[in-house]
Structure formats: C-alpha cells, structure tokens
Amino acid sequence: MELKTKGNLATFFEARNVAVIGSFKEEWSGGYGVIKNLLNFRFSGHIYPVNPYYSEVLGMPVYPTINHVADSIDLVIVITPSQVVPTVIEQCAQKGIKAAIIVSDGFAETNREGAKLQQHVMNIARNAGLRIIGPNTIGITNTANCLVTTPYFTGYNKIQRGSVAYASQTGIVGAQALPLEDYGYPISKICDFGNKCDVNEIDLLEYLAVDPETRVIAMHLEDIKDSRQFIDIARRIVVDKPVLILKPGRSQAAAKAVASHTGSLAGTDQIYDSAFTQAGIVRLNTWQEFLDIPKVFASQPLPTGNRLAIVTVSGAAGIMAIDAAMENGLVIAQLSSATIDRLAKISPRLVSNPVDIGQVAPFISDFPQALESVIATVLADDSVDCAIIVLWAALAADALDTSDAFRRLKQQGSKPMAIWIYGPKLSAKEELTRQLEALGLPTYLNLETAAKALGIAASYAKFKSRLEQ
Q1: Which of 193, 347, 342, 354 has its CA nearest to residue 263?
Q2: Whole-angstrom distance, CA of residue 304 vs CA of residue 123
Q3: Whole-angstrom Cα distance, residue 229 to residue 210?
Q4: I need a labelling partner for 226 at 20 to 30 A (CA). Which of 258, 405, 419, 467 fits?
Q5: pTM of the predicted model, to two decimals?
Q6: Domain(s) of CATH 3.40.50.261: residues in the chain
Q7: Of 461, 464, 466, the residue nearest 307 (C-alpha)
C-alpha cells in the first residue's frame, strides 16, 4: 500500500513536549482541566502551562508566553477566547511550533464572522507550516503515551490500550463523555476533528493507515471534505485494515443540522452509501454500533467464512441468535458427525446447532468444565467459521473461572467469537464483561449487535480476500 501522507500527524499524537495556553482557574474545564487530565492519565511527556496572569498551577511553573519556554514545543493546546487565538497562533508560529489543537469555539460553527476569523487563523498557520486540529474540538487521545487533551474532567484515569482508532466530528467521542475505563474499549487513538479547518479525515486516514498501534479504523463523519480522495485512500487501506464509517445526515433535517454544527455541507447520502460499498468501507447505522462493532476486529482473527455456531445457556436466546445471524449474512453451520459424537459424550441432548447447554446444566456435575469443553469442541469443527456465545452472568461469574477458561479457549483456537451476557445482577454482568474484554473477547449489549459484528467481520474478510487475489 503506497500512500503519500499529507503532513505527519505524529507531531500531534506522539508529542513529547506539550504547552497548554488558557485559563488555569480551578474548575471542571479549560486549561486547568487539560493539565489535570494529562497528570491523571500520567502523560509520559513534559507539560508547559502558559498564561501571563498565573505563576503556578498544579505544582508546575506557568510561563507568561510561549516564547518564555526555553525548550522546543511539539504540540500546543489552545483554550482562549476566539479573538485571542490569532495572536496565540502567531506566537506559536514564530517559535517554530508545528502542531496546535484549538479547543476554543466561536468560529465557523457560529456565523460568518466566525468563519472569517477561522480563515484568518488558518492563513497564519499555513504560512508557517503549522498544522491545526480544530477549532471547536476536545482534541486527541493516544493510549500509547497517555496523551489525553480533553479540557473536561473525566472522573477516571485509565483507558485500555488497544488497536481501535476512533475519529469523530463531535466531542462525545472523548474520555470526558464515555466511560472508557469501565467499557474497556481497546483504543489506540481518538481524534475529534472539530471544524476541520486544517487536519481532516483524509489526513488522519493516511496517518492511521501506517500506525502500527492501529488495526481497525472507525470514523464518525458528518461531512467529507474531498469524497473522491477519501474513497480512493480508503480503498487502498481496507486490504490491510478495516475502515468503518458512521455517516449521519440521511434525512434532510439532519443534513441541515450538520451544516450548523460544523460549518460544512453534507453530500448526498445515496452517493456515499454506494461509494462506501464499492470501496469496501463498512457503514454503521448507530452511535452504539460505532463504539461496539470495531471490537470484533481488535484482537481476534478474521473468520474464513460465514458459517456460525451458537453455544448458549438459553434456548430462547439461541433461536433469537439464529434470526439475527441470518439477517446479517451469516448461516448456521451444520456440525460434523464427529463433533456431534463428541458433544453427545458430554450429554446426549447436545446434538444440534445451536448447542443449548443450558437445558442440560442441572444434569452435569461439573458445568463450568462442560461449557468450556462444548465451546472448544464446536470451535474445532472445520464447518464452523465463527461463534456466538451466550452466557448467564450469575452462573459464569460464580461457578466458572471465566478468565482462565476463555484464555484457554482463545489459545486453543483461531476463530472469532462474539459474546452476549445476561443475568439478574448488573454488577456481575459488568464484571464478567470486563474479564472477557481484557482477554480480547468482545462482548455486546445485545444479541443483535453480536451477530452484526460477526456478519460484518465475515463480509470484510470476503472482500479482503478478493482484493488479495
């Protein structure tokens, strides 16, 4: 894959020396919030607060201007009133800084005057070779170096390091808006584009294409600056990394809202839909899918086909899983006679797919071991490409050493699983989810999403295989 990267966004994501320019009044947002988060998440680089009206913040000296910082600065985070931003960017340009995140709002997303101000800032930056993310953004996250630039307090201090990169035109993708620590999403990078006065989805797509930390790219895009170029780049990327897009604006009312939110115009939805399909881009329909579906690619192999096995502790859930699977391009695998014979040794009632182990649970002395054996037996069948596993949280959490069992299952096999957990206690369900997610086994809020995730993985694998031929 040959890509000509427009600028190197490593200056943003891999910055070592970060300056924060803004108010350091102790409150829940602003410059103080940025520094507080950088410290809480244990950013591995150096932090330089800048404000002429402060001498100290959070135990660190504050510099009157960026020029008073003797060290070179990789990245500056700007959270000042919009009218002050041009002066700040001019000072950054004079110091030779090459990357700035402008958190400040009041630009093209507001009115014509704001758009003019934004263009003025961009002209200063362009003349100096300074790249900008924003304005009107919470910025970025890099879990490799614990760089979290959101100006709002998060209430937690750990994000699971993983291989999914999320990009969006909204701040609700950030650490301050999502319980990332609790959900355990396997994240490599996060980027909120904001108004996209400079850095946009094309720049980030090119950067993530060669980012070794990222295996799957998920983007929420209200508009695309250059659709033709974006599609062309994505088409070359999908042979190595899946690209998933949530593109709102299907209705006319939503399209108008897009323009007021980001100061940009949305394209025709049907054209996007067709272009995404031809390029091998996966289109997602909801925000929850945007967050959850990418997990299936993060640490599991791709399925070699679309034949699905279902192992469930609930017969009703197994039937519902069949419907969800068929609706998402999967077919129910016909288990081999050898597999059926092995299952029958565990219980003579386990002779079909879905494998309803719940019905025989009262008659099995060691149910946890039986569940592990059933899953391992089904996954070993050559006629099975992937599996949905339905677990009961109360049983699994209390009677089964879940982490060890599923760690063994993952080590033994090379087929993807998607898991749905139900049960009477939310805390038990969440704890079991955390254990499985930590092993790289995606769990989902409902059966339908679990089936869709595997269906998308199978469809992408088929498309990828055609490209490689």
Answers
A1: 193
A2: 50
A3: 17
A4: 467
A5: 0.91
A6: 10-295, 301-468
A7: 461
C-alpha 83/C-alpha 107 separation (Å) is 9
Query: Which tens digits make up the pLDDT trace of 219-271?
Result: 999 989 898 999 999 999 999 999 999 998 665 554 555 445 444 444 577 78
Q: Give the 3-state secondary structure of 300-350.
A: CCCCCCCEEEEEECCHHHHHHHHHHHHHCCCEECCCCHHHHHHHHHHCCCC
List pLDDT tens digits, range 38-68.
999 999 999 999 999 999 999 999 999 999 9
Q: How far is CA 390 from CA 125, 308, 383, in A?
A: 53, 13, 20
Instruction: Give yes or no for a contact between 21 and 50, defined as CB atoms under 8 angstroms apart.
Output: yes
Cα→Cα distances 35→9, 70, 98, 170, Å? 22, 19, 20, 21
CA dihedral 213, 216, 219, 225 (to 10 degrees): 80
CA pair distance 380, 388, nearest whole angstrom? 14
H or E element in which residue 118 lies: helix 112-128
H helix or E strand, kind and range, residue 436: helix 426-438
Using DSSP bridges, classify how beta strands 187-192 and 140-142 pair: parallel, antiparallel or unpaired: antiparallel
Buried b (16+ CB within 10 A) or exposed e, 14-45: bbebbbbbbbbeeeebbbbbbbbbbebbebeb
How many CB atoms lie under 10 A from the CB of residue 253? 8
Contact predicate 5/205, CB 8 Å? no
Burial (CB count within 10 angstroms: exposed 0-12, middle 13-18, buried 19+), residue 266:
buried
- Collapsing DSSP states into helix, strand and coil, what is residue 220? strand
Q: Does domain 10-295 have CATH number 2.40.110.10?
A: no
Radius of gyration (Cα) for the chain, nearest Å? Answer: 25
Taking residue 219's Cβ as centre, other Cβ atoms within 10 Å add up to 27
Phi, psi angle pair for 17, to nearest 5°: -115, 115
Using CB atoms within 10 A of its CB, is residue 6 exposed (0-12), middle (13-18) or buried (19+)? middle
